[in-house]
Amino acid sequence: MKPGYREIYQRYRQNIHDGVLKPGDRVPSIRLLAQELQVAKKTVEAAYAVLVGEGYLVSRGPQGTCVNPALTPVPRLADNAPAAVHEGGPLACESEGYLRPGIPSLDCFPNKKWLLLCARATRAMRPEEMVNPPVAGYAPLRAAIASYLTISRGVTCTADDIFITSGYRGNLLLTLQALLGPGESVALEEPGYFMGQRLLKTLAPALHPVPVDDEGMQVAHLQRHCPNARLAIVTPSHHSPLGVTLSLPRKQQLLAWASAQNAWIVEDDYDGEFHYTRNVLPSLKSLDTDDRVIYIGTFSKTIMPSVRIGYLVMPRAARHAFLDRGALLCGGQPLLMQKILAAFLSGGDFYTHLKKMRALYARRRETAIRALHAVFPGVFATPLEDGGMHVVAYLTTATCDEALARVWHQHQLQVSALSPWYLLPDKRYGLIIGYTNLRSYDEALALLTRAAADTRALLTGAR
Question: Where does the record place the HTH gntR-type domain (predicted)?
Fold first, then answer.
């Protein structure tokens, strides 16, 4: 079988870790390696792009690509050390792994166009742009994001309303610092995004978990049990992780709560672009007439995680607070990546890519669900939610999802257990399974079959 980009990536990463490839060593050109492996150039381009993004390789333009000279040399343990990583080795699963939630389809990303934009932006950097970047972000990127949000998400905003951050953590940290006073508390969905929970535990003195049902956050619970909450964090378009959508009555109820309490709402629209059986839903922010919603997003799901760029729409009444705190906390994001993103968005390539990914992910989701039930009949229930980049597979008769996730990790299936996403004792149990990089039904079957015997043994013992 011809190697895919993941296998090529893993081989190079392992060779660098083992010292087979040393800092400064040149690697074959994309064209030559594609010919040698008899694969498409795009496959090699995808593997090289990930390696460059993670810092293993460095592209030197006409001089070719080499192992990053800044890496620490690794001594060879033996002259006959293996030259290629065994698929599923421990180093491979640390970085990528299969079925990992939240990773976009890297094999179908327009790498050639992206690399062209990277080269153009690098050549166009002027000396005056090599000092401190603008605190709120590169103006053309802010304008491109404002245009995208207005057209695609129904968020009426201008470039002056956009603040460029370092990603999800940067969005959340800046918002809390700009809007919360000492001792003020935060409401969040139960279950909720585990990285957000961990960050909030270090920043907010009091957290109020608000249960989620089939209509999203139970706003009535928020009103009754969290009267002092100053800010609520929600994922209304596609709840993380359960996938439900906040109903329109509850959206209206939540907005009314914020206005009455003089509180704020953070709308985390982490994958709102990906809906498959109906049109993309308008954002909560599009219904906000009192400017109480802070809309946040990143490019980690729509482009790639290594971009490390996020954005938020500042409420105009608190714009100065965001700008002041932003200057203190981060001082602006690196300019080069912002220029590349601005070109990708303003040139129309971003919209074309999203349209392609919606169709691709819809097919791959169906593939994942079919394969899951074929390998594990009766073990999981998979209610079909409209959209997203992962499937929640609820265990039908067991509660050992954390142990099960560990078993799957041993087979390099980087799924997440559902129960740790809850803060309260009343939990549901299952696995969160990413499907965006599944290329075929046969591949899905092969991957899931890896863990079949150990899964059945664990579930039999759990009973």
Answer: 2-70
User: From CA 259, how far away is CA 264, in angstroms rounded?
Assistant: 8
Instruction: Check if the beta carbon of residue 37 is closer than 8 Å to that of residue 29.
Output: no
The residue type at 386: D
Angle at alpha carbon of residue 206, lines to 203 and 209, rounded to 5°: 105
Which residue, 194, 236, 190, is CA-closest to 212? Answer: 190
Is the C-alpha dihedral spanning 399, 403, 408, 413 positive or negative?
Answer: positive
DSSP letter for each residue of 18-37: HTSS-TT-EE--HHHHHHHH
What residue has token string 């980049």? 389
Distance of CA 47 to the CA centre of its chain: 19
Pairing of strands 185-190, 430-434: unpaired
Q: What is the pLDDT, as a whole number, of residue 236? A: 94
Q: Which letter does DSSP use for residue 217 in this model?
A: E
The span from the CA of 150 to the CA of 280, in Å, is 13
- To the nearest 10°, the Cα dihedral for 393, 399, 405, 410? -130
pTM: 0.78
Judge contact between 223 and 257, C-beta under 8 A: yes
Per this entry, what is the length of the chain? 463
- Give the Cα separation of 69 and 50 in Å (integer): 17
Q: Is 60 helix (H, G, I), strand (E, B) or coil?
A: coil
The DSSP output letter for 413 is B
- Express each pLDDT in 114-154 by its tens digit: 999 999 999 998 888 888 899 999 999 999 999 999 988 88
Q: CA 284, CA 217: separation in Å to the nearest integer? A: 13
Summarised one tens digit per residue, pLDDT across range 218-230 is 999 999 999 889 9
